[in-house]
Automatic annotation (TrEMBL):
Residues 222-316 form the Fe2OG dioxygenase domain. Gene3D superfamilies: q2cbj1_9rhob like domain. It holds the Pfam family OGFOD2-like. Residues 333-344 have a biased composition (Basic and acidic residues). It comes from the Eukaryota. This is Fe2OG dioxygenase domain-containing protein. The keyword Electron transport does not apply. InterPro entries: Oxoglu/Fe-dep_dioxygenase_dom (IPR005123), Pro_4_hyd_alph (IPR006620). The keyword S-adenosyl-L-methionine does not apply. Its cofactor is L-ascorbate. Keywords: Dioxygenase, Iron, Metal-binding, Oxidoreductase, Vitamin C.
Length: 368
């Protein structure tokens, strides 16, 4: 269940049998069943939580001592309190307190000169229009709805990497950034959520309102899951997928000198050309790419060095609630039948049931 439970609050068996896209009603019914019954974490779940060594692991093991209908509420409270404590501790030891301030300012010197007048500021400064932002940034259109532009100065990328490195070097347990990437960290957990809120409000939301004006969520992006992904070994790559977001901002932080690891785009989830090649964005330090969450993408092999990117999965509560209650179709539905043979680069081992069949069909010795 990619994206529904980013905090890994529920054990894996909570989602068993609920399928790919459970409705809110199904989730609520499962929650009621769970609350009525014994503690739903089975031994396998507990192992999963412990093995991941994440920030939720302590709650999971203490939970395993209790049974009864209140466990869910207590666990939620324990988890929220635990997270606040971590953020609080992190704020005290941050290398750059400005990055993790509760009421931060997007400082002009962190941004490329062209965007400073439009993006720098605090939460009270009125956001600029998406059109003005695109023009000022001289955004490069890579394909329909996919743009790339220089955003951060190298100094800002270094500051952010220094926080990520310090967190990694600390003894604090880490949750992986999402269900696909193991390397990296959730920046909201180390005090960066207010700064990411600002980035959402002053940059991502106005750009999305302009670029995706026909989408039902265009004007209502209001929260995010933000993380750093790290690719460290030659051959590290990321399988083709679409994000648990309405729109995604992906910014390369470094480290200067890596090669490979391009961001490859295919069609949109639910569309007839979903698995057709569309574009490749080459990552460069400080450069951002903005795309729809349902735009299929993946990362090519890293050929040398180390690559870390900041990813902001921007979401709309209004859109998600309307889709969950059945007032509008969830993103990418209804699915259109695929018209053309998929491109090999756009196949996903994890997400495509016909992955092996397609590869065999398109192998050089096959009928092609
Ligand atoms: O590695 C990248 O640039 C892409 C990462 C990504 O798509 C994701 O984490 O959702
Ligand atoms: Fe992604």
């Amino acid at each position: 269940m990619h994206g529904v439970d980013d905090a890994y609050f529920c054990g894996g068996s909570f989602w068993d049998g609920l399928g790919d896209r459970p409705t809110l009603r199904q989730i609520a019914e499962r929650a009621v069943e769970t609350l009525r019954g014994p503690l739903p974490l089975d031994e396998a779940d507990r192992e999963r939580w412990r093995g991941r060594g994440g920030r939720g692991a302590a709650q999971a093991s203490s939970l395993s001592q209790h049974r009864g209908p209140l466990w869910c509420r207590l666990a939620a409270e324990a988890q929220a309190a635990g997270k606040l404590r971590v953020v609080d501790e992190y704020r005290r030891m941050a290398r750059c307190p400005d990055l993790v301030a509760p009421a931060p300012v997007l400082r002009a010197e962190w941004l490329v000169p062209a965007l400073r007048p439009l993006v720098a500021g605090d939460a009270h400064a009125p956001p600029s229009s998406g059109e003005a932002l695109l023009r000022a940034a001289r955004a490069e259109p890579l394909a329909d709805g996919i743009v790339a532009f220089d955003l951060f100065e190298p100094r800002f990328c270094e500051l952010l990497l220094a926080e990520a490195d310090a967190d990694e070097a600390s003894l604090a347990p880490h949750d992986p950034p999402n269900t696909m990437n193991r390397g990296g960290l959730i920046v909201n957990e180390i005090g960066l959520e207010p700064l990411m809120d600002l980035l959402l409000r002053r940059l991502i939301a106005p750009l999305a309102a302009h670029l995706y004006s026909a989408e039902p969520f265009a004007a209502s992006l209001d929260h995010h899951h933000s993380f750093v992904v790290a690719y460290r070994h030659r051959g590290d790559e990321l399988d083709m997928h679409h994000d648990a977001s309405e729109a995604t901002l992906n910014v390369c932080l470094g480290r200067e000198g890596f090669t490979g690891g391009g961001l490859r785009f295919c069609g949109r989830f639910g569309g007839e050309a979903h698995r057709r090649n569309v574009a490749v964005a080459d990552h460069a330090v400080g450069r951002a790419t903005l795309h729809l969450g349902r735009q299929r993408h993946g990362a090519d092999d890293l050929t040398s060095g180390e690559r870390l990117n900041l990813i902001v999965w921007a979401r709309s509560s209004a859109f998600r609630a309307a889709a969950a209650y059945g007032y509008i179709a969830p993103d990418g539905y209804p699915k259109e039948p695929e018209q053309a043979r998929p491109d090999l680069e756009c196949l996903s081992l994890a997400n495509d049931d016909d992955y092996h069949e397609q590869r065999a069909r398109q192998a050089p010795s096959g009928e092609g």
